[in-house]
Amino acid sequence: MSKNFTKEEMKVVEKFQQKAKIIDVSINAFVLKMREKMYNNIHKMLWKECKYGYLFKKLLEATEKLAKAIVNYEKENIIKESVDIANYAMMLSDIAEDDGVIKK
Asked: pLDDT tier at 5 (50, 70, 90 boundaries)?
Protein backbone atom coordinates (compact mmCIF):
# COMPACT_ATOMS: atom_id res chain seq x y z
CA MET A 1 0.00 0.00 0.00
CA SER A 2 1.52 3.31 -1.03
CA LYS A 3 0.49 6.73 0.10
CA ASN A 4 0.15 9.72 -2.13
CA PHE A 5 1.72 12.68 -0.40
CA THR A 6 0.20 16.13 -0.46
CA LYS A 7 2.29 19.02 -1.77
CA GLU A 8 2.89 20.17 1.80
CA GLU A 9 4.03 16.70 2.86
CA MET A 10 6.35 16.50 -0.15
CA LYS A 11 7.90 19.85 0.82
CA VAL A 12 8.58 18.51 4.31
CA VAL A 13 10.13 15.32 2.90
CA GLU A 14 12.28 17.29 0.44
CA LYS A 15 13.46 19.67 3.16
CA PHE A 16 14.36 16.71 5.36
CA GLN A 17 16.30 15.09 2.51
CA GLN A 18 18.19 18.34 1.84
CA LYS A 19 19.16 18.65 5.49
CA ALA A 20 20.12 14.97 5.70
CA LYS A 21 22.41 15.40 2.69
CA ILE A 22 24.15 18.39 4.29
CA ILE A 23 24.59 16.42 7.53
CA ASP A 24 25.97 13.37 5.71
CA VAL A 25 28.42 15.39 3.60
CA SER A 26 29.72 17.27 6.64
CA ILE A 27 30.07 14.17 8.80
CA ASN A 28 31.77 12.18 6.04
CA ALA A 29 34.27 14.97 5.38
CA PHE A 30 35.02 15.28 9.10
CA VAL A 31 35.45 11.53 9.54
CA LEU A 32 38.01 11.56 6.72
CA LYS A 33 39.97 14.21 8.62
CA MET A 34 39.74 12.15 11.81
CA ARG A 35 40.94 9.03 10.01
CA GLU A 36 43.80 10.90 8.33
CA LYS A 37 45.02 12.20 11.70
CA MET A 38 44.80 8.71 13.23
CA TYR A 39 46.79 7.16 10.38
CA ASN A 40 49.38 9.95 10.55
CA ASN A 41 49.90 9.00 14.20
CA ILE A 42 49.79 5.24 13.72
CA HIS A 43 53.36 5.00 15.02
CA LYS A 44 52.18 6.15 18.46
CA MET A 45 50.74 4.01 21.23
CA LEU A 46 47.26 2.66 20.55
CA TRP A 47 44.64 4.46 22.67
CA LYS A 48 43.29 1.16 23.96
CA GLU A 49 46.41 1.04 26.14
CA CYS A 50 45.68 4.49 27.62
CA LYS A 51 43.89 5.39 30.81
CA TYR A 52 40.87 7.67 30.90
CA GLY A 53 42.73 10.40 32.77
CA TYR A 54 45.46 10.66 30.13
CA LEU A 55 43.00 10.83 27.24
CA PHE A 56 40.81 13.33 29.07
CA LYS A 57 43.85 15.52 29.77
CA LYS A 58 44.71 15.45 26.05
CA LEU A 59 41.12 16.33 25.16
CA LEU A 60 41.21 19.32 27.53
CA GLU A 61 44.55 20.47 26.07
CA ALA A 62 43.08 20.29 22.56
CA THR A 63 40.03 22.22 23.78
CA GLU A 64 42.27 25.00 25.12
CA LYS A 65 44.12 25.13 21.80
CA LEU A 66 40.79 25.30 19.97
CA ALA A 67 39.67 28.22 22.12
CA LYS A 68 42.87 30.12 21.27
CA ALA A 69 42.47 29.31 17.58
CA ILE A 70 38.89 30.62 17.63
CA VAL A 71 39.88 33.84 19.40
CA ASN A 72 42.65 34.40 16.82
CA TYR A 73 40.50 33.07 13.95
CA GLU A 74 43.16 30.61 12.84
CA LYS A 75 41.06 28.55 10.46
CA GLU A 76 43.52 25.69 10.02
CA ASN A 77 44.06 25.35 13.76
CA ILE A 78 40.30 25.45 14.38
CA ILE A 79 39.95 22.46 12.04
CA LYS A 80 42.99 20.66 13.46
CA GLU A 81 41.97 21.01 17.09
CA SER A 82 38.35 20.12 16.33
CA VAL A 83 39.58 16.89 14.77
CA ASP A 84 41.85 16.22 17.75
CA ILE A 85 38.95 16.74 20.16
CA ALA A 86 36.73 14.40 18.17
CA ASN A 87 39.45 11.75 18.08
CA TYR A 88 40.03 11.94 21.83
CA ALA A 89 36.29 11.75 22.46
CA MET A 90 36.10 8.69 20.19
CA MET A 91 38.99 7.06 22.05
CA LEU A 92 37.34 7.65 25.42
CA SER A 93 34.07 6.24 24.16
CA ASP A 94 35.80 3.25 22.62
CA ILE A 95 37.64 2.18 25.76
CA ALA A 96 34.48 2.73 27.83
CA GLU A 97 32.62 0.36 25.52
CA ASP A 98 35.46 -2.16 25.67
CA ASP A 99 35.66 -2.55 29.41
CA GLY A 100 32.60 -0.92 30.90
CA VAL A 101 34.67 0.06 33.92
CA ILE A 102 36.58 3.31 34.31
CA LYS A 103 40.35 2.86 34.54
CA LYS A 104 41.69 5.44 36.99
From this structure: confident
- Tell me the CB-side half-sphere exposure of residue 86, using CA atoms within 13 A: 16
Residue 101: closest CA among 52, 59, 58: 52
- Crossing angle of the two packed helices 75-99 and 7-40, in degrees rounded to 10: 90
Buried residues in 5-25 as b, exposed as e (16+ CB within 10 A) = eeeeeeeeeeeeeeeeeeeee
Indicate whether this model's pTM tops 0.90: no
Which own/partner contact pairs does 46-50 have at CB distance under 8 Å and 24+ positions apart?
Answer: 47/91, 47/94, 47/95, 48/94, 48/95, 48/98, 50/91, 50/95
